[in-house]
Amino acid sequence: MSNQAVLECRNLAKSYSEGPAQVQVLQDVELLLKPGERVAIIGSSGSGKTTLLNMLGGLDTPTTGSVWLAGEELSALSEKKRGLLRNRALGFVYQFHHLLAEFSALENVCMPLLMSSLPVPEARARAEALLTRVGLGPRIHHKPSELSGGERQRVAIARALVNQPALVLLDEPTGNLDRTTAQTIQELILELSISLGTAFLVVTHDPALAQQMDRILTLEDGRLVPVAKEVTA
Ligand SMILES: Nc1ncnc2c1ncn2[C@@H]1O[C@H](COP(=O)(O)OP(=O)(O)OP(=O)(O)O)[C@@H](O)[C@H]1O
After folding, report:
1. How far is the CA of 48 from the centre of ligand 1 (A)?
2. Is the CB of 43 under 6 A from ligand 1?
3. Per-residue pLDDT for 171 more than 90?
4. How confident is the model at residue 118 (pLDDT cuts 50, 70, 90)?
5. pTM of the full structure
6. 7-226 adopts what CATH topology?
7. Cβ–ligand 1 contact at 48 (below 6 Å)
8. pLDDT of residue 165
9. Which band of pLDDT confidence, cut at 50, 70 and 90, is reported for residue 1?
10. In what order do the strands lie in the sheet with 64-69?
11. Residue nearest to atom 27 of ligand 1 (CA)
12. Which class for 82: exposed (0-12), middle (13-18), buried (19 or more C-beta within 10 A)?
């Protein structure tokens, strides 16, 4: 793979068996993400966006083709090593925040650090700094049920960034938010990716969020195709 890439996939395909038939969801998918690059993946419902994101994040296995994350080919690693690499190099943000209900915002953000060798006081300090950075300084001890939808998504973003990953994968991060909250989350994503130098790969139905990214790709007939960005006056 290219030594410049945080993520690369070549010749990726995924099919599912449905009785005797094979359903080809993805084919010949090629992608290269450079450090700090922001890319949106759009496409109609059922076109395979989540399937692709899951394979790029090592959560699912392609039928054929290879994925390299931070220089390591995922299929060449044991399950344990793949898990460690995911924890070190990747952050995930989903449409629904997936925070643990019984833990505070601070504890939720600290969670990925439990697998790292960082001493607990440093882990807490780092999580607290990140929560302050996403605008939640006064709410770090609140549980998810005591936070608004937008605040929960801020916690999820802080959790995705706490290990200082090279890449964050986001699946419909604004899909469950009202227009105004979606816009503030969109601005936060952009601001963090610029200031931290983290690459972001975001699957979205939101044209405004897609337009904020450096590149837009769409899934058509299982293949990734570049989309021209709108030129703003
Ligand atoms: N485990 C599975 N077994 C069989 N088919 C599957 C499986 N997972 C996904 N599919 C099929 O693959 C296709 C792509 O699904 P996927 O969820 O990736 O689409 P998507 O583009 O993310 O859709 P949406 O925008 O609605 O979330 C769909 O037709 C879906 O039914």
Report:
1. 5
2. yes
3. yes
4. confident
5. 0.92
6. Rossmann fold (3.40.50)
7. yes
8. 93
9. low
10. 21-33, 7-18, 64-69, 72-73
11. 45
12. middle
